[in-house]
Amino acid sequence: MITKKISFRNAFTMLELIFVILILGIVSSIGAEIIAKVYEQYILQRAQHRASLKTELASLQIANRLHYAIGGTVYRIKNTGTLEPIESSFAAGHGNDYVGLQWVGYDADSFEAVNTSSGREPGWSGFCDLNASSKKKIKTLGSKLALTDNIIKNLSSNTKDLSNATLYFPYQTTEHNVSGYTGDDIIDLDNDTLTIAEQYKLAWTSYALKVENGDLYLYYNFTPSPAAALGTTKKLLLKNISTFKFKGSAGGIRFKICKEERISNDFNITACKEKVAF
Fold first, then answer.
1. What's the whole-number mean pLDDT along residues 263-278?
2. Which of the residues 140, 152, 186, 235 has the least number of beta carbons within 10 Å of its own beta carbon?
3. What is the mean pLDDT of residues 75-91?
4. Is the dihedral of CA 9, 10, 15, 21 positive or negative?
5. What is the rounded radius of gyration, in angstroms, for the C-alpha atoms of the chain?
6. In the chain, where are the structural domains located?
7. pTM score > 0.85 for this model?
8. For residues 175 and 75, is the Cβ–Cβ distance under 8 A?
9. DSSP letters for 132-195
């Protein structure tokens, strides 16, 4: 007679299995919560970084543009569309009634350009030879006016040239219209009653920063005269603007810009930058 020996092995009891399942559930829930928190922090930091980067880039562009503003031509734009000199005081309680800035900017592109094919002269030098000039012809030594004319055409998409430019002399806010140019270094003017000076600045466009429907736009390619009517040429500078404030003081313009970065329908992050342009 053959007998079969039965052996038993130790195993988990039902109670132990239940405890193991419970522990695994607790651990997994804690791990999921940690992962969710880490992902949430990543989303917040990414949004904050993007908002800060966009605001910083926009503020740098604004400061760079304002750096070339001609003194006495900077105005603030009220929400009613009227313009006020940037130096004037805000009316009490009305500091939030302004939506933008407007100014005439001198032509830095051709002023800082270099014509390497014929020496290293800029487009316009900014200097006037009084002895060789008259009230309708400005002798501007060291200039290559054909270069200026070409740069203006390129930047304005061939809608403007040097004959659309204006000259500003120091301590004057009245522009003097250019009718054209003769040779490399003679600027022809329309007006023969002005008082000329040894230095000048040449401008072919005004600029404006304006908040429209919560977005900030840069206007350009319109008449280079103080307080001129805005043109239709503009480009989007920054979306979702919550704050755009500015004040003129001590020869500079201080401005603050804040942008919202939307994470969800009910949660936003705001980044702000403040700069001074001289």
1. 84
2. 235
3. 88
4. negative
5. 32
6. 48-90+237-277, 108-203
7. no
8. no
9. G--SSEEE-TT--HHHHHHHHHHHTTTS--GGG-EEE-TT----EEEEEEETTTEEEES-SS--
